[in-house]
Write a structure and sequence with these properties.
243 residues, alpha+beta, L-fuculose-1-phosphate Aldolase
């Protein structure tokens, strides 16, 4: 695949994830950001622009920027907090080709609970066993590289980071894998919230079963099929969204 073809596909994949995140209520107003390192261009990445709702974003609306935040291609602007979070992760975590940051409600609810953690109590939660980290310090908006680097350090051995009093970050080697994780993370947190609301203790799954099941989930290819299905639905229901 030529670079231009790769860039076009990257734009479509990221726009798909943004539009479906909006459909599922994973966004918050016009805040939060999704980014993607461009295949074949490790020093450039795509990110959603400031001021556009995720539900209206088209592939060509995505901004192409460099690690210093300089706009290479695009007709909009980039929010500073997006640059300081996403650029630091892309630069220091090679396998984080795609970085998704949201304030999605059920996952964020865990971050505002004292000692809140994702519990290994549902099959859905086991998708993240051994892949989650927690940043326990909230310092306000991320508006400098120092805070961006501090947050990024927590992701060294994890794909998912719960940010205290804030939201979550999900990283993956592709839009397909990161999106699939983001979707199921919110579902796992939703299940946990519903179960805890009953006041009954959670039924914990033994560590050996957690590890085995997590490995099974990582080895299947469902995440690839998931994103392609979402594209087909957009093509069916939102004519012209790719233009």
């Amino acid at each position: 695949m030529h670079n231009n073809d790769a860039l076009t596909k990257a734009r479509i994949d990221l726009a798909t994830a943004l539009r479906w995140a909006a459909k599922m209520g994973l966004n918050e107003g016009i805040c939060n950001h999704f980014s993607l390192a461009v295949p074949g261009r490790p020093d450039q990445f795509l990110i959603n622009p400031q001021g556009l709702h995720w539900a209206e974003i088209r592939p060509d609306d995505l901004m192409l920027i460099d690690p210093d935040g300089k706009v290479i291609e695009g007709k909009h602007t980039v929010e500073p907090t997006a640059f300081f979070i996403h650029s630091r992760i892309h630069l220091s975590k090679p396998n984080a080709a795609c970085v998704l940051h949201t304030h999605m409600p059920y996952a964020t609810a865990i971050t505002i609970c004292d000692g809140g953690k994702l519990e290994w109590s549902s099959q859905t939660s086991l998708k993240f066993y051994g892949r989650v980290a927690y940043d326990e310090c909230y310092n306000g908006l991320v508006l400098d590289t120092e805070e961006g680097d501090r947050i990024c350090a927590q992701l060294e051995n994890a794909d998912v980071l719960f940010l205290a009093n804030h939201g979550v970050i999900v990283c993956g080697d592709s839009v397909a894998r990161a999106w699939d994780d983001l979707y199921y993370l919110e579902r796992a947190c939703q299940l946990q919230a519903i179960a805890q609301s009953t006041g009954k203790p959670l039924r914990q799954i033994p560590a050996s079963i957690c590890e085995h099941t997590a490995k099974q989930m990582m080895e299947d290819g469902q995440y690839l099929l998931h994103l392609e299905a979402l594209k087909r639905l957009l093509d069916r229901d939102e004519s012209g969204w790719r233009d």
